[in-house]
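Retro notes (design track)

What went well: tokenization of the new backbones is finally stable.
What didn't: we kept losing track of which sequence belonged to which structure.
Fix going forward: every design gets posted as structure first, then sequence, in one message. First example under the new rule, 162 residues:
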């Protein structure tokens, strides 16, 4: 009987929120590596920060430098240099705002949109290969778990003890 209680305690420790979060973090690290490797195969090599900036501008076309800095959680000088490099690569346009000539609006060029589409396709292909190697039941469980994780994220942290 004591062995049964010890197994329950071991299972309880393994299923604790901290333990599960640690295993998820390891899996996310692996996915990040897959994501980075796939993006490195694109015709234009971009750093993760450059990709984040392009994605942010894709989601908020016409953003100014301050808005982009807030989205990237970075300082204005850093984001300005980042935009300099993206503009030099032909991925970004800076135009005066129509209602305030001192404000600069940022937008992706057609080439910038094409590069993002290429990276998305490469990442999708890499992820499809990995998911395709999984057992069907595991794919269903992964999808269900990711949906639950996303839902919990939007609900916010659980109350202590609950």
């Amino acid at each position: 009987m004591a062995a049964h209680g010890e197994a329950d305690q071991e299972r309880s420790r393994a299923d604790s929120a901290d333990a599960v979060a640690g295993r998820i973090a390891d899996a996310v690290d692996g996915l990040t590596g897959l994501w980075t490797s796939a993006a490195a195969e694109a015709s234009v090599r971009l750093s993760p920060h450059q990709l984040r900036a392009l994605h942010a501008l894709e989601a908020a076309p016409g953003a100014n430098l301050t808005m982009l800095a807030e989205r990237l959680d970075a300082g204005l000088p850093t984001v300005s240099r980042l935009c300099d490099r993206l503009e030099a690569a032909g991925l970004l346009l800076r135009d005066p705002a129509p209602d305030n000539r001192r404000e600069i609006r940022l937008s992706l060029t057609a080439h910038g949109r094409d590069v993002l589409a290429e990276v998305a396709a490469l990442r999708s292909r890499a992820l499809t290969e990995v998911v395709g190697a999984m057992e069907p039941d595991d794919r269903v469980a992964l999808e269900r778990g990711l949906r639950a994780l996303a839902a919990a994220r939007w609900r916010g942290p659980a109350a202590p003890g609950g």
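Added context from the reviewer: The chain has a mean pLDDT of 88.
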